[in-house]
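Protein modeling request. Please complete all fields; requests missing the sequence field cannot be processed.
Requester role: graduate student
Desired output: 3D structure, token encoding
Chains: 1
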Amino acid sequence: MTRIPLPSADPVAHSTVAPKLSPSVLIAIIVTLLAWSSAFIVIRGVAPHFTGGSLALARLVVGTVVLSLLLVGHRWVRPTGREWLLIVVFGIAWFAAYNVSLNIAEHTLDAGTTAMIVNIGPLLIALGAGVFLGDGIPRWLLIGAGVAFLGVVLIGISSGITGVGDGTGVLWSLVAAVTYSIGVLCQKPVLRRLPNRQVTFLGCAIGAIACTPFAGSLVHDLSRAPVSSVFGAIYLGVVPTAIAFSTWAYALSKMSAGSLAVTTYIVPALVVLEAFLFFREVPAPLAVVGGIVCLVGVALSRKRARVPFTAVGS
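Delivered output (314 residues):
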């Protein structure tokens, strides 16, 4: 007797085996996760000395300079009109808007809570791919989205109850999550043809240009910030931006956006641990519950309906 799979009614519910990651891709993912988790900590540390916009501009200027050096000796591929449009949106959304929103959020929220909210971004990426890229939206994705939204609500309630903030930090964190997802959805298509170094450089440069209105604020903040905070801003430009966005782009060029986004679910745990070690910050209990609910929602969103089997006589 032979058992054969029957097609599922769910347009994207099917059983697949994830391909094994190559060592280079695995290393790129690890570097990205460690660098991005450290960014939440450094931003929280330098927040008292920089406005959200000025820190974003400083980070992106440094990142653009470093990324331009990484382009030396590599072939330049001319983008098409459509690719230019996607790159511009990618740069403005992920590099400019995301960084400004994240910086502002961490003025009122602790690093761990901010990371938990921003980490609904992968869920939004999956939803966006279903709506705009024709990937379909399976029922488990909708269920997961609803659960994750409940988690965000709990985090928001905890902010009001504990006095961590007036809710604006949660709002800015949500903006960061949305702009992060928009950036990934625009970045993935252009990586099919353009070199990842070039795409990352262009996105960072465009983000820096978009943040130039904060130049006056940056000059003012640099004149008053302690040396440690200035070095913190430089670190953000070199490691979480130039290096981590490069390793992310490399990994994204080798695997699907959804599969790669799943790996970022570990970032909040890393941030909570690092925040405790460096600042003795511990998210409010209800925020921790909300963060766990968010992660449960994310896990549910990745669930796939089992492919039914039927037996046929031999």
